Amino acid sequence: MSTSATQANLTEASNSKQALDSIQTEKVAQVYQMVEDYFHYLNVENFQAVAALFRSTGSLCPPFEEGVVGQAAIATYLAREATGMEMLPQQQAVNLLETGEWQCEVRGIVQTALFSVNVAWTFVFSNTVELLTVKVKLLAALKDLLNLK
Questions:
Q1: What is the domain range of residue 82?
Q2: Which tens digits make up the pLDDT trace of 57-91?
Q3: Going by fewer Cβ within 10 Å, which terminus of the chain is more open, N or C?
Q4: For residue 32, what is the domain's CATH number?
Q5: Which among 42, 114, 47 has a CA at the least distance from the CA of 75?
Q6: In the chain, how many domains are there?
């Protein structure tokens, strides 16, 4: 292979990597925006808008309960369970999974009139950045959770 052909192949490979990096950067930005929208809509109690962020078959997995599947069911669940809560996300990290899906780990605090608790939210997005699942995990010791009742 000639030197110019080798240089052309290297340039093409470099351009492909830059294009891939650009696409990934764009998708990470979309993930962060959707996560920001999720918390904004939750905090203003617009549960229909929260549910609309999910794919039609998306699921919300609250702690200690069965998963809630589908946009209508998610909106109904949130209206019943999340009214009066304030979600305060503090740390976020986005990762590309081996499956091609995107995962955003968020840690923060949920505050109510009676208590506050540390929480971790795990968001899973499709490779086209559709919200598939949100898993909610309480980050408290069992004795602390028992004191909430």
A1: 3-147
A2: 999 999 989 999 999 999 999 999 999 999 999 99
A3: C
A4: 3.10.450.50
A5: 47
A6: 1
